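Supplementary Methods, section 5.1.

A reviewer requested that the exact input to the structure prediction be made available. We therefore reproduce it here, unchanged from the version used in the analyses.
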Amino acid sequence: MEDTCDGKTAKWAEGKLLGGELEEPFFLGAGIFEPHLPNYTLQKYFDRFPLDEIKLPEGYWENDLDDVPGAHSKMAHNPWLKKIKAGGQWKHAIQAYLACTAMADDLVGQIVRALEKSKYAENTIVVLWSDHGYQLGEKERWTKYSLWERATRVNMIWVAPGVTTPGTTTAKPANLLDIYPTLASLAGIAPPEGQLEGNDLSVLMKDPDAAWDEASVTTFGYKNYGVRSERYRYIVYEDGTEELYDHAKDKWEWQNLADNPEYAAIKKKMRREIPTHHEPSGVTYKVPRRKP
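The structure derived from this sequence is encoded token-by-token as follows.
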């Protein structure tokens, strides 16, 4: 495994932690590429998931898109699931994803074990996150490219000595934008005033049940937004069409409630989270050239 790209990354991080070369305070980042496509890994990880034991996603429903606005189709950047299913490779593809995820888990464990053996174990903050979720066929999607739960929900795990309690969790919505202000708060660093959109999650680390009325907002393309509260997911597309799901009753987002008048107040509240400033589609930014 040390010969793989991710294996080399984990070995590098392990060496930094155990080599006694770090000048405190320090920031150490280690990015694991898998399970990003292409899903290549060692055979032993495929062997952990025998093909005859692979199950299709619990959240897959053949008629799932019947009550979804057509605007979702503009986000379907790839035909991968259709090709995977046509080739009879659905379970093989899931097996490959699980195998690569298992390798990533082992490599994270390698880095954590190195930290535990090091002199930094008692005073180092650890945060583990991923960049996006993953659809294995739900709503006829493979990988990401949507504003639904499976594509936008990510891993986020914190260990902050003296602050977090092992084994505790919270269902309060959080966002990747929260990582920097939380790290700054935990490390006693003053972040730039008025320039951060994220929230300090240390409040929830100290009390997972603390009052928390924040929502997480995801954008994908021009004026397409997903808003996740603790209970609901609300999606609005550029053309104004909507989706609303009640996760207390419908964790797979099978029933779109957006047209149900009983939920008008919920939609109105969640619309307040949507940004009022939208960058035009296709905007690019260029550094102005200085005159000679």
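The chain has three domains: 1-166, 174-208, 215-275. These observations are discussed further in the main text.
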